Amino acid sequence: VNLTLYTTTAVILLDGDGNRILSKYYGGTGRNVYPSAKVQKTFEKGLFEKTRRANGEIILYDNHVILYRNNIDVFFYVVGSAEENELILSSILNAFYEAVSSILRQQVEKRAILDNLDLVVLALDETIDDGIALETDASVIVSRVSRPRTDTTDIPITEQTLIQAYQTAKERFAERVFKGV
Amino acid sequence: MNVSKKDEDSGNLGIFYHLDKTTVLQEARVFNESPIIPRKCRLLLTKIIYLLYLGEPLGTKEATELFFSVTKLFQSKDIALRQMVYLVIKELSTIAEDVIMVTSSLMKDMQPKSEVIYRANAIRALCKIIDASMLPSVERFLKAAIIDKTPSISSAALVSSYHLFPAGKDVIRRWANEVHEAINSKPASLVGSASSYLTSFSTGASSYATQPSTSNINQYHALGLLYLIRQHDRMAVTKVIQQLAGGGRGGFGSSSNVLRNPFSYCLLIRYAAKILDEDPNSRQQMYELLEAWLRHKSDIVNFEAAKAICHIKDVTAKELYPAINGKFVFLSSPKPTQRFAAIRTLNKLAMTHPTAVQPCNLDMENLITDQNRSVATFAITTLLKTGNEASVDRLMKQITGFMSEISDEFKVIVVDAIRSLCLKFPSKQAVMLNFLSGVLRDEGGYEFKRAVVEAIFDLVKFIPECKEAALAHLCEFIEDCEFTKLSVRVLHLLGVEGPKTATPTKYIRYIYNRVILENSIVRAAAVSSLAKFGVSVGDVEVKKSIKVLLTRCLDDNDDEVRDRATLYLKLLEDEAGAEKYVKDDSTYSLSALEEQLVQYVSTLEATEKPFDLSAIPKITKAQAEAENTRPRSIDLNTTSQTLGSVSATITPHVVNTSISTASRDVTTPTPTGLVQQHSYAPKLAAIPEFASYGELFTSSNKPIELTESETEYVVSCVKHIFKEHIIFQFNITNTLNDTLLENASVVMQPEPDDVSLEEVLVLPAPKLAYDQPASAYVVYKRINPEEYVLGSFSNTLKYIVKEFDPTTGKAEEQGYEDEYQAFQVEDIDLLAGDYVLPTYLSDFITAWDQLGEDGQVVETFALTAMSSLQDACTKLISLLGMSDVENTATPQYTSLHTLLLSGTFLGGIKVLAKSRMTYAPSSGVTMELKVRSQDIEISRFMIGAIA
């Protein structure tokens, strides 16, 4: 029986073809059951084959309990040891998935994840800390992920005015076309 | 504005699709630019993380350089950038060197005055880069952070301390009070809003007001850490459990409970289950807690409690009842995970307590067709374990429809379950066989087909009624089998079993078809199989046709096939040869052979002579199989009886040794013990003087050393028990290279001088050269066969010494002629256990109940000298000479244990013993020993062995 706080072996995101979007295996030397990139890839490949068509949400694979959820072209996996309480893993997966879903405004798909990768990796970091579940409340996870500021200081004044000028010109043009019709 | 925004975004798009490590490392120069552009830097940091998460390898040097350029970004005050910096620092900290250098920057950020949003990140990153030696310098901050009112900060500190604990035990142990306080913290919803109000007030226009957590997960982290600190103090853990368990039954969910996080209850349940397992005294109390948690409002908690109860080592049906009752609900849950969790636990439980799981059978049958394959497979295998004979037909029907849909891996599980079911309900063999032959025709990989073929082999072996039908199915299978290995095995089986059937001719056609159609390996196997028909079938016509068929094989284009055909054609003419080479299926004991070969290779002198194969004991096929299948028969529980009936057909002598070797294998796993066992019987049989004593009943487990290993002559003794005789075999080794002993014998003197034993024979060892062990024998006869004599013997070695010149290798003609030397060795005891043959038993309870109380003797002993239960078990096993069963030789608890023993007393009387023992440091081991046998006198005698 697992008397420690370490519940999660890995979190894996694969795309619709089974390619890695991102994978995080926890535990340094000793705790990590998949120490090299090669064994990780083999594990992910086999796991994807087993789960791509099945519409379950849990599977026993390679002596691990794995909870998974998929949407369009993304598969989310949370990997735990075989003896772990399935419902604990399930609530970890759900917390992370809901958080990502909320960050991406319910558009959970590969492109959206890659476009907002900074937010997604921070969300993962706020969900699990080296195998320990850090937070299971999706709204807390979301609130702890900082978004880059679109602060004006970053964009040089000149550039900004140019954009504005272009914008105004375009609006005027559109208005005129509209009226002309 | 919209358009421009989109343009800008699409510029970023695809950036992560083709990412290259070298480019990213080059781009890292951006970090050195001033002023820092946060947005750009954050994007680059994300790229680094992405590379790492994709599994791109990063060298130590690269990582170190990257790490230190990243630390430059601490100059920027941008919150969003800072959070990403922490993540990168954490990820790089395991690869880069000298990461400890940035400690001071991080320490600044974890001060209470810094921004709340990344203070938690700072703490977690800091603890990744420091080592145990720096722990005291951050101790103050971490202690403060643990009790911080903001849950995320408290959690960060607790989790980080948890990671650091193995390295910094001594420091972190001192924080127990703070950790305790964190567990007892107020609900976050109350303080959370207050603190976020405070932060927004103090930092002015901070836009990051953290959402108040409703999960209270910091309690889980605190409890985990507290357990790490206190884990070796059972009293303290018990106290924690009691404090946190809440106000007793029905008190859950009320606001008075300290714990509000479901995960932390799971931890509590695991701790309680551990204590329950380790300390029998707390069982009642802990069980009540577990039972109460079954009604917790959170599914996670009540499932964990149910699971814990199912996993209690010696759980009773009554204790299981409420837990299994609770799982009913889960089995029909709409969530696959809950169904999976429930069925998996039940599946495991069904192995040990099938009857307890039976009430769930109906619910489980609905799961057979579950969308989730794992759930379905678990449901089927569980049902096969718990189902009764009547439900088998229905179950098999359901599985048949289901098999085509599942993957090979699961099919193997199903086939294995059916295989054990066949043996459990032999009357259902027709249904099973139909099923197996059906799936044999399906598509499938090697592992799956192998499982099916082996299952059918088992049917052939153990259920005679279905032999013909099963063989017919196998014949059909090899007609179209793509796996050479399986074809060969089937052909072999046909060769062994086919000739025994009523119409052997019908198999010959199938076998000969293989000779025409298959590859050379299968052809060779088919030729051997045909030859077996030719030799074993009495019918002259069959013999004739086999000869014709074999003659045709002489033209085969493969050497091996031709050779076999030639050999077998010759053997068909030669009855004696056929007897020896075709019918005789005995083989060398492989373990003994291995042992001998290792010895042969490792000793230099031995290699001068060719290896002596005749010294290796031969065992029959059935014995070899008995040894191979024994571990499996323990699982299946039922095969052992059928196995027994198989070995019973061999001569009684062989049965004895086979059982004793098998069971000794359990008690003494050393290969030498096994080999010695094999060699005794033939060795003794070779001595003509012993021929009249009958069959050897049992020999002592291992030789008893009668001297120190460094004396001139090393003597050990083995006791052999025959029906009326006892042979003491003395193995003597001469360790002096300049002497030669002649006529060495052992003089035994019974003490007290017992009249019930009569010395009938003394057989000296004629010659004892240096380092060449020889044996001397002393035989006693028990005058009254009804009386099993016990006693002690003093022993003296007597011999004639001759000088020996090691250089010439010649002994002096004149030694100390006729002058016997005496050499005192230690005493030998004849014990009750010597009359017992340890026999393995797979189902102790049934055998125990069958013997009944008529032949039972009970006695209680106080063994004050014993220092542990393990000691007592080992001693008891050796005193009684019996075999432990059901793995009870090793106590699970330190204070309470039940040892089960089984053996056969001289004359074939079954003896069983059950010993309940307790241990307390003050009084030693107290033991109640119950012995049952068919003869109460024997039970009394066995009890008498303990004194």
Q: How many beta strands in the DSSP annotation of chain B?
A: 19
Round the mean pLDDT of chain A to the nearest integer and report it: 85
Instruction: Report how far the terminal alpha carbons of chain A are from each other.
Output: 75 Å
Please estimate the helix content of chain B: 40-55%
* Beta strand % of chain B: 5-15%
Q: Which ranges of chain B are low-confidence, i.e. pLDDT below 50, for 5 or more consecutive residues?
A: 1-13, 188-208, 247-255, 630-676
Sheet with most strands: strand arrangement of chain A = 2-1-5-4-3
Q: Calculate Rg of chain B over CA atoms.
A: 38 Å
Strand tally of chain A: 7
Oligomer: heterodimer
Q: Which terms summarize this structure?
A:
heterodimer; A: 181 residues; alpha+beta; two-stranded antiparallel sheet; 6 helices; elongated; B: alpha+beta; six-stranded antiparallel beta sheet; 41 helices; disordered N terminus
Task: Give structural notes.
- Chain A: Oligomeric complex that consists of at least the alpha, beta, beta', gamma, delta, epsilon and zeta subunits.
- Chain A: This is Coatomer subunit zeta.
- Chain A: It is found in: Cytoplasm; Golgi apparatus membrane; Cytoplasmic vesicle, COPI-coated vesicle membrane.
- The complex is a heterodimer of chains A (181) and B (947).
- Chain A has 181 residues and is α+β, with helices and mostly antiparallel strands.
- Chain A is built from 6 helices and 7 strands; from the N terminus they run ββαβββαααββαα.
- In chain A, the strands form 2 sheets. Chain A has a 5-stranded antiparallel beta sheet.
- In chain A, helix 2 packs antiparallel against helix 4.
- Chain A is elongated and about 75 Å long.
- The longest helix of chain B has 17 residues.
- Chain B is globular and about 105 Å long.
- Chain B is built from 41 helices and 19 strands.
- In chain B, helix 11 packs antiparallel against helix 13.
- Chain B has 947 residues and is an alpha+beta fold.
- Classes of the chains: A alpha+beta (181), B alpha+beta (947).
- Chains A and B meet through strand 2, helix 1, strand 3, helix 2 and helix 3 of A and helix 1, helix 3, helix 5, helix 7 and helix 9 of B.
